[in-house]
Amino acid sequence: MFRFADIEMLWWLLTIPVFVVAYVLITRHKRHQLSEFGDPELMAQLMPDASKSRPIVKFALLMGALSLLIIAAARPQYGQQEKTVKRQGIEVMVALDISNSMLAEDVAPNRLDRAKQMLSKMIDNMVDDKVGLVVFAGEAFTQLPITCDYVSAKMFLNTISPKLIPTQGTAIGAALQTAIRSFGSQESDAGRAIILITDGENHEDDAIAAAKQAQELGIQVFVIGIGKPEGSPIPVPGTNDYIKDRSGQVVVSRLNEEMCQEIAQAGKGAYVRCDNTNTAMRALQQELDRIATTDLETTVYADYNEQYQSFVLIALLLLVIDFFILMRQNHSLSRMDLFKEKAEKYKTEK
Question: Taking the CB of the first residue and of the last residue of the chain, which one, N or C, has fewer CB atoms within 10 A?
Fold first, then answer.
């Protein structure tokens, strides 16, 4: 596959026609000036060494060299090979609660955005690890399969909102089950972890059993509780109002720390409470650093091979040729007959 790494540099090729037009106009102007001095044929006899073709050849060589240098500056590249490399790292699946209660503003700017900020920093700290993303509310699904493509991970992370799942609730057990399946093969020497980020409200299924299942498969479950135990009302997006129950009372969402701690204990992980500081991020990073790392096979694409060197060499060759072409005819060289001189020298010696 052929491509230009800096394709915008090719716009400079548009200067070549400008130079050509300028050269033609300047040449015509010079001829017009010479014709004012006298008859062109007589002027040609007065300047026998002048060459009409050599300036054109030199200009063509110069334009050719310039074109090749512009192409070289655009960094032509060829070939892209797929290969498998081994990296030292762990595998992490993130299960992120995106229910409406995550819009509560007891942490700034709100629970969901604060969780996304923390996950973004966690991804930035990854080097050879793999990461995947599960989102859940009343149901759960895999938003991003496990990968080492951190750019895609952050892109998917930025698109997350409660609108992704219309069914409200907090199906933590389903989220953990989905995260377990997202690891793929159940047998692996790599350190594996599930990071559950939730406020723990509206628990609907057996999350404890799902956490124990993960632990039996060698997957540790870490829980990030986000929010405050005293709770906060849930804003209605796009309004200045708050979500209310059927009786018209404002709903207050509270962090269920007890539930979060039980899930972490069942998953042989740790529970960390997230607030407006970076304490949770540092604690989580320390826990992840304790997980054993192993060689992870990852399919990547080799870099393109640079091809600009050939264009530069050809351009330099054209410049060298241009340097040795004289603007005028060299009669001394044209009259030189090396074989004749050698023959006369041989006769003299005889």
Answer: C
> Do 75 and 98 have their domain in common?
no
CATH number for the domain that contains residue 105: 3.40.50.410
> What amino acid is encoded at 335 in this protein?
R
What is the rounded distance in angstroms from the CA atom of residue 288 to the CA atom of residue 282?
A: 10
Per-residue tokens: 233: 């009302």
With the C-alpha atoms ordered 104, 108, 110, 111, is the resulting torsion angle positive or negative?
negative
Element (H, E) at 158: helix 150-158
Mean pLDDT computed over 239-263 = 91
b/e 259-297 (16+ beta carbons within 10 angstroms → b): bbbbbbbbbbbbbbbbeeeeebbebbeebbeebebeebe
User: Structural domain of residue 294, as residue ranges?
Assistant: 84-300
What is the pLDDT of the chain when averaged over all its residues?
A: 83
- Predicted structure pTM score: 0.61
Distance CA 69, CA 71 (A): 5
Q: What is the pLDDT of residues 333-349, one digit of tens each?
A: 445 444 455 445 545 55
Please list, in sequence order, all residues whose beta carbon lies within 8 angstroms of the beta carbon of residue 252, skipping any fewer than 6 positions away.
231, 232, 233
Domain total for the chain? 2
pLDDT tens profile 2-39: 788 888 899 999 999 999 999 999 888 877 776 766 56
What is the distance between the alpha carbons of residues 68 and 76, in angstroms, rounded to a whole number? 11
Distance CA 91, CA 99 (A): 25
Q: Which two tokens stand for residue 81?
A: 């090979």
Q: Residue 88, CB half-sphere, CA atoms under 13 Å: how many? A: 4
φ, ψ for residue 132 (rounded to 5)?
-135, 170
In this predicted structure, what is the pLDDT of residue 338?
44
Residues 165 and 208 in one domain: yes
